[in-house]
Amino acid sequence: MHFKRRGFQPQIPSVDMVGKQGTDLYILQRLKGLSLAGRGISFSQTDQLREALRDLQLSLQAFPDCVGAGLWCGEVLWRLGRRREAAACWEKTWSFTTQSSAENLSLYLKEPQSGPLLDSTELRHRIQGLGPTLSA
């Protein structure tokens, strides 16, 4: 059974509402990305590489600038023998500008600075070992 109000005008979203909804969506997407990244990193620690890759890729879809997910996604691709894809993933991740947008965020929205870390210098050495640049 549906009721219809007479004289009811549909609410037109105000600029404030649209701005708040945009902010809320941003926060939700970021939380989703961080959550999936954490789960993907956990899977990679137990050598469940397919599950790790799935979650890390989903994390990057939800939160494309997630440095941790990008680095770990490359690590998992590397372990799976997909070295060129791993190198491309790392290079893309290193191109992110992270600090500018993350400074004003609440603590729970920032990427964790602890946990299993990857050494960027070692990752760069791996890429150099692949030979010519990825333009091929």
Write the layout of secondary structure elements.
Blueprint: H1 15-45, H2 49-62, H3 67-79, H4 83-94, H5 99-102, H6 120-129
Helix pairs in contact: 1-2, 1-3, 2-3, 3-4, 4-6
Descriptive report:
It is a single chain. This protein is an all-alpha fold and 136 residues long. The protein has helices at residues 15-45, 49-62, 67-79, 83-94, 99-102, 120-129. The mean pLDDT is 80.
Keywords:
single chain; 136 residues; mainly alpha; Serine Threonine Protein Phosphatase 5, Tetratricopeptide repeat; 62% helix
What is the element string, with H for helices and E for strands? Answer: HHHHHH
Proportion of strand residues: under 5%
**Total count of helical runs of at least 4 residues:** 6
What is the CATH third-level topology name of the domain at 26-97 and 119-136?
Answer: Serine Threonine Protein Phosphatase 5, Tetratricopeptide repeat
**CATH top level label of the domain at 26-97 and 119-136:** Mainly Alpha
Structural class: mainly alpha
The low-pLDDT segments are: none
Helix fraction by DSSP (H/I, runs of at least 4): 55-70%
Shape: elongated
How far the N terminus sits from the C terminus, by CA atoms, comes to: 63 Å
The major pleated sheet works out as: none
Taking all Cα atoms into account, the compactness measure Rg is 20 Å
Question: What is the strand tally?
Answer: 0
The chain-level mean pLDDT equals 80
Quick one: CATH superfamily of the domain at 26-97 and 119-136? Tetratricopeptide repeat domain
CATH architecture of the domain at 26-97 and 119-136: Alpha Horseshoe
